[in-house]
Amino acid sequence: MKPATCRQISTDQRSEERLGDWAGPESGEEWRHKHNRLSCETDVHESETELKQRRMEALIASYGDSSSDSDASPPRSKQPRHNNSNTEEQSICLPPPPLALLDPPNSLGYLETDHGGRERSFPRVEGNFALHVFIPVHIPATTRKELFHYLKKAASLLPGLHVVDVDILLNNLCKDDQKLEQVALGREFHISLGRTVPIRAHQIDSMVSMLCQKLQSQKRYWIDFSKWEVFVNDDHTRSFLSMEVAACGLAEITRQINAVNEIYRLHNLPEFYKDPRPHISLAWALGDISHSLKPLVEELNRCHANGSSSQKRIFTCKFSGIECKIGNKTYKICKFPLQ
């Protein structure tokens, strides 16, 4: 600050010398004191202004070079222009998304191809998802060894039977006992609590939420599969060899079916059969061949009645929970550990 003040005063002194030629001794001296005071105040004000300006410029410069700019002000690029063109070329060369993304795997379109001559129970509609509410059932390992003898007899009496959900002729599996036990009996079976129907995507959340609220708290109970039976679907396009729940567990399953019916009604979906007959299906055949399956069922029930087992049931298992499958996604409505 001192050099700037001295320069300013020396300049003013020359002006005072010129003014002293016409001013008197007293007035000239008085004028010099007043002018020196004003000059010093002006110098201090101008110096402070210059200092603030320099600080502001330095601050702006530091922010301009900083890499911590906000999103609203993107940082300046110091790289050559050709780098940006390379980035654009790389983005243009990216491969297109896979076509599978356009048709999600949990939609009905994923299951469009029919298997084994089976027909759809409802037509494919874009945006619809197949809904199925059921009790999962696993046949105990000790029971499988007994059941595959029944399946062997069924295959010999009716060669056109297929394994459920596998689309393999039961007769072909009978050549290998281990494969027959694993493929035909080692899978998960289902006791349906509602019809398999299509629902829209916007109905999924409310459907799952209501099922959980209604069926989440369930008590454990035993399920007895006591007899062989024949079932035919509504369209009479397939017949099933099944084991029916006719005694123990029937009352509990019926209550659960009624609860599912209430939720179906709220979603404008068709309810389950008026007089439900809970069962699991082990084999199927094309068309309505109930006339051929009934003699087979009678023979199997006769074999069971004459068997070494004194129990009336074919096998028993504990209720393990309720699941809801929508498309290819399964929701656990209530679940108990397998025992």
Automatic annotation (TrEMBL):
One of its GO terms (cellular component) is nucleus. It is found in: Nucleus. GO terms for biological process: U6 snRNA 3'-end processing. It is an enzyme of class 3 (hydrolase). HAMAP family: USB1. It comes from the Eukaryota. Keywords: Hydrolase, Lyase, Nuclease, Nucleus. Phosphodiesterase responsible for the U6 snRNA 3' end processing. Acts as an exoribonuclease (RNase) responsible for trimming the poly(U) tract of the last nucleotides in the pre-U6 snRNA molecule, leading to the formation of mature U6 snRNA. Its EC number is 3.1.4.-. This is U6 snRNA phosphodiesterase. Its main location: nucleus. It comes from Nelumbo nucifera (Sacred lotus). One of its GO terms (molecular function) is poly(U)-specific exoribonuclease activity, producing 3' uridine cyclic phosphate ends. Belongs to the 2H phosphoesterase superfamily. USB1 family. The active site is at 190 (proton donor/acceptor), 279 (proton donor/acceptor). Pfam families: HVSL (PF09749). Residues 1-34, 57-98 are annotated as: Disordered.
